[in-house]
Structures are given as C-alpha cells and as structure tokens.
Design a protein that fits this description.
By secondary structure, the protein is α+β, with helices and mostly antiparallel strands. The chain is built from nine helices and 16 strands. It has a five-stranded antiparallel sheet with strand order 1-2-3-6-16, covered by helices on one side. It has a five-stranded mixed sheet with strand order 7-15-12-13-14, covered by helices on one side. A four-stranded antiparallel sheet has the order 8-11-10-9, with helices on one face. The mean pLDDT is 95.
Length: 323
C-alpha cells in the first residue's frame, strides 16, 4: 500500500500534498473534487477529500492496519447502560453477566489490513424506482388507497413489495418496487465500476480504530437523539448517530437499516432489521447491532428487502492509480 494513502502517514501530510493526491484521485475516477474537509468526532479525526460523481458524494478514506472485533469492555459500561441491562435481566429472570451476553453477539478479535477507498457518504435504497403519480404501472387500487391516506395528513404510505407514496413538501413522490436478488446487486454495482465494503472494511468505516463497543465508548450515550427512542424534547433535533463520523460517513445509525456488505452470500452489518427493538429489548440492546464489532449476519435467502436492506458504494484505490 502506498504509505501516503495509509492513515498514519496520510494524517501527517500537509494540505498541499493532500490536495495533490485528491486531485489525482478525481482525475483517475472522473470525479468532481469538492475540496478538503476535516471530520472530527468521538475522539478521531480525518482531513480528507470529498468528491461528487453521478449525484453521489464520496469521501476518501485512507487505509490502515487495525484490530477489529471485541474482547471485552475497554472502559466499562456507564451507569445508565448497566442499569438498563440489569432491569431487563430482572424482567427476564435472567442471571447472566452482561459482558458475556454482549460478547456472544460480537465478532472475534482479528487484525485486518484495510486498503484506501472512495466511499459513498450515504446509504442508498435498493429496488425503489421514483415515478410520476400518473405512471400507468401504479394500479388503481393502490392510487385509491393513497388518496384516502393523503386525506389523513400522514406522510408515508407503503404497500409492501409494490409501491410507496411519500409527502415531499406540498407534493407527493411515488415509487415502484422491483425485486432485487443479491447477485443482481453485485452485478449492477460492478457494471458501474463500484463495489460494496467487506465486513472488515465496514467495521473500519464505522469504528475506525476504536476498541470500545461503540465509537464513542462502551455504553450507550442516552443524551443522543436516537431513532425509535425520542421524546417531545427531541423534536427538530438531528439524529446524533446519523451525523457524519470521523471519516465523513453517515453510518450505523438506525438498527432497522441493514447494510449489505461484499460476500459470497447475502451478508449484512449495521442493523438487525429492528428485531431487538421490536422484541422490547430497549435502546442499548436495540442499538447493539450498530456496533462496529457486531457479528456480520449471513442471511438465509438471496432476495434483498427494500424496506430494511441498503447499500453503500465504494471504489477501492489501487497503488497503480497514484503512479
């Protein structure tokens, strides 16, 4: 790996050298270079390049050799997290060490060499095609249901595996759903010169070099505005975990959103489709699947679910691109 593209060396480069590297990358991949930005979050930071291509924003993430996986609390659970787990254990009449229960859900410790990448900053939907409200493929009974729903003042109506209607200001956006299998997604991305991060790459993008359970620490930060656990005082506040992390990525912020990763079989990270939350397990265990150390989940089927499965495009940067 070109040492200038490796995180320890890259972080030491001055702005002129970084600008030159980013301009070369933009030329190699026919991207628009938007400039250098500094992302600083949860004790980690990176000043790196932001790019645009085909309506997407990418960020350059330098490579690194890192320790991934979990072997125990680096700092220890905070009091609020411990109290939440103790309450749940009493309700379940379960006598267990929280650390052992958590450890069963997490991936083993391992060393991984992560190469430099250009990474999509946002998750993208799978299988949804925006269409006009007069599109003939929207069936009459769907449209009648939508008209009745619109009168209620609601914002979003979904007919599972069929169509979706979402309020967009004073208008509505309709979408048609198309079934997508795992091999189809991989081929679609390959045809565009894109790929998906592997599970190890995803863990690095999510946690960087953190050895704590979450990028900010071992316990859940209950001062955060979290999806699915919000009160009236949170109205209008941004969702903290959705804000850009130290690489400039919006990643692992909603347990209902599973992120598809590169693998021979359909595998996801970053969420469990909301299973823990639906099971009444509370915020800590509900958000545990968003940990960078959570064990990747190999799905039993090949068909992606447009309501729960999402993807993040990446481009791996080869050393030859810098020569």
């Amino acid at each position: 790996m070109d040492q200038k593209l490796c995180r320890p060396r890259f972080d030491q480069l001055g702005s002129p050298e970084k600008l030159a590297l980013m301009e070369k990358l933009a030329a190699c991949y026919a991207m628009t270079f938007l400039g250098l930005h500094t992302f600083d979050r949860w004790g980690q930071s990176c000043t790196t390049g932001v790019f645009e291509k085909d309506g997407r924003e990418f960020v350059f993430v330098p490579g690194d050799t890192v320790t991934l996986g979990w072997e125990g609390f680096a700092v220890g659970l905070n009091q609020e997290s411990r109290e939440e787990l103790e309450y749940l254990f009493r309700e379940w009449e379960l006598e267990r060490d929280p650390e052992k229960l958590i450890g069963e859900k997490l991936a083993p410790v391992r060393q991984a060499a992560i190469g430099p990448m250009l990474v999509g900053r946002e998750l993208e939907e799978i299988g949804w095609e925006p269409v006009a409200l007069d599109d003939p493929r929207l069936l009459p009974d769907w449209l009648e249901e939508f008209r009745q729903f619109a009168l209620t003042g609601g914002n979003s109506l979904t007919r599972v595996n069929c169509a979706r209607f979402e309020r967009d200001g004073d208008s509505w956006q309709a979408c048609l759903y198309h079934k997508v299998d795992h091999p189809d997604l991989l081929k679609l991305l390959k045809d565009q010169g894109l790929s998906l991060p592997t599970a190890d790459e995803w863990a690095y993008l999510c946690g960087g070099s953190c050895r704590t359970l979450f990028p900010w620490g071992d316990g859940l930060d209950y001062s955060m505005h979290l999806y699915w656990f919000e009160g009236p005082e949170d109205k209008g506040r941004p969702y903290d975990m959705e804000e850009p992390n130290f690489f400039g990525l919006s990643i692992a912020y909603d347990p209902y959103m599973r992120e598809v990763v590169q693998a021979d079989r359909f595998t996801t990270c970053g969420g469990d489709g909301g299973c823990n939350i639906c099971g009444g397990m509370g915020p800590f265990l509900g958000f545990l699947p968003c940990s960078p150390h959570y064990r990747p989940e190999v799905q039993e089927y090949d068909t992606l679910d447009g309501d729960y499965d999402f993807y993040r495009p990446v481009i791996r940067v080869e050393d030859s691109d810098q020569q």
